[in-house]
Amino acid sequence: MAAYFTVLCILLLQSLAVSSAVLAGLKNNHAARGNNGHYKAPSLQANVSSCDLFSGSWVRDESYPVYQSSCPIIDPEFNCQMYGRPDTDYLKYRWQPSNCQIPRFNGLYFAMKMRGKSIMFVGDSLGRNQWQSLVCMIATGLPATSPTQIIRGDPISTFKFLEYGVSVSFYRAPYLVDIESLGGQRVLKLDDIMGNAKAWMTADVLSFNTGHWWTHKGSLQGWDYMEADGSLYQDMDRLAALERGLRTWAKWVDSSVDPTRTKVFFQGISPTHYIPSDWNASTSKSCYGETTPMTGTGTTYPGQFPDQMKMLEMVVRSMNRSAYLLDITLLSALRKDAHPSIYSGDLTPEQRANPDHSADCSHWCLPGLPDTWNQLFYTALFFRH
Known about the structure:
By secondary structure, the protein is α/β, with parallel strands linked by helices. The protein contains 10 helices and 13 strands. It has helices spanning 2-14, 107-113, 125-140, 194-197, 238-256, 307-317, 329-333, 349-352, 355-358, 369-383; strands at 56-60, 93-97, 118-123, 148-151, 156-161, 166-172, 178-182, 185-189, 205-208, 225-228, 231-233, 263-267, 324-326.
């Protein structure tokens, strides 16, 4: 009976065809069983011109999270439950757009739709955060016996779902543009990207992110010189440097990516929560101890809207073959509760006792917020792109 039910589910999923008239359709698909015991196929509304995926609110949902912290690919710095986080309410929130329903993520459906194809996340550790989330979300929808393979490396790591021929990779390129060694010095080449991009050409879906590394200084800075127009600079305005790098990336997408074969996404700037006054708190200097999202409708940005995001929006709008901007910035800004804080791997007792200096309020717990990023990625990939 179980085998029959599995086959029936697969046939139902294979029969799901989305016409061009409703590609943008978004109606509830909670992968829930109906009264007859069968999975419900996604129901798509025909006219979603008014549907804004990224404006809405966080609502409590006891059916979350979609996977557990035992998912073996999660790095220690993201695995908050394994490293002692005492609360779990932050796992119980679902993003609800204001005027539409979005499909619940279905790992089996994802694997079948992407059969024989590859997805690659390119960027910094926030991209790695999302990559690991997506792998866990797909895996939880497949039988435990479905064969997988992981190949870890630098700059690229790949997780393969062998039964479906699906590969999900992360390519580490914090600036997207190239960094080369010149006389023992690291040179960030703002006008060059092909050193990295040659590894991206075969992917069927590309998702990019950058931003945080452009602001690092001192020992955290990832370069010694910047190069633009053949000249070397010890430093320059960081926002101007980001714009130059983004325009190099955009030019590469416009000239080198075949939009009939490859879908391109760019992840919005992931916000940090190091300024408690942004959410009217004054008791700490970090996100430590935060257990609930900010209240709000997701239409007003708490604190100062990131200049990096303004720049990214401008560059993406200027592209000939525009990438899909997965605008997670505002909805993520409401999640002051979703960071690892002091539950980020094996911190020392001294570090845990001093959260104002050791709390990680940049990355995100897994399970957690990046799962919502991937639900929106899933919606855009299959129902809107």
